[in-house]
Amino acid sequence: MLGPGDDAAVIGVPDGRVVVSTDLLLEGRHFRRDWSSGHDVGRKAAAQNLADVAAMGAVPTALVVGLGIPADLPLTWLDALADGFAEECAIVGASVAGGDITRCDLVVIGVTALGDLGGRAPVKRSGARPGQVVAVAGRLGYSAAGWALLEAGVPLGSSALQEAVAGHRRPCPPYAMGPVAAELGASAMLDVSDGLLQDLGHIAAASGVRVELDPQAFAVAEPVAAAAKELGTDPLEWVLTGGEDHALAAVFPADVRLPPSWQVVGRVVEGEGVLVYGREIGRTGWDHFG
């Protein structure tokens, strides 16, 4: 209702409730300027926050952005960052409502996202029950595969490898599937930011249940498979433990008819933790303080 230019913005809240989430991105930890353009970083920073809102079953409405930047940061990079934010927000009909900027030794980006539930109940992490199914919407393994290619300095000679790297630079969350899942009766949901196993562990812990996954149910995308072949690794490791794809993982009643965008990959049973049938997984995902 009122955007940048005054001391504060004004955001309409038709539902009467506001979904709020916030994230930090630090240069050298979440992105590298020699690997990603300003436009890439803007898209990524917006995406990871918009996905959090969608994972509550809400529709994103606005972002506010805090920036810390070095004094010698090229203006062209900053312009590209703003364009990236605007382009990603346009996908869901949101916008950057305002923010703040200060001098810093590294590029630091703090984003707060707002969303509207549209009359729906928020989909929390604590609603999973035994007998329900676990499903995923969106891409898994792209970001981890792309990061591994960049870290190894592999020449990106094929379109598949280039697509994997693009997935690391600019995730593609399935925003619309968040509200869809809420309408279909999802009882628990989150976005996959730190790795599917680790994030499903949050649902298992919050709900007091066990999540069992079938590794045969996961379709490994060609870019992820190509990167794994190039680097001699198991692509399923990236699918199960790679973060920053911002896919959505949700729990549904077993009798719900899911649209093709949702792929059933497991079930909820009594117990605790996350189990992958027939696989020994050494790590579960990203540990921020490991």
TrEMBL record:
UniProt: Mg(2+) 3 binding residues: D7, D52, D191
GO molecular function: ATP binding; magnesium ion binding; thiamine-phosphate kinase activity
Metal-binding listed as a keyword: yes
A Pfam family per the record: AIRS
Sites where the protein binds Mg(2+) 4: D7, S21, D52
Residue ranges annotated for the PurM-like N-terminal domain, each copy included: 5-115
GO biological process: thiamine biosynthetic process; thiamine diphosphate biosynthetic process
Catalytic reaction(s) noted: thiamine phosphate + ATP = thiamine diphosphate + ADP
Function noted in UniProt: Catalyzes the ATP-dependent phosphorylation of thiamine-monophosphate (TMP) to form thiamine-pyrophosphate (TPP), the active form of vitamin B1.
Protein name (record): Thiamine-monophosphate kinase
Gene field: thiL
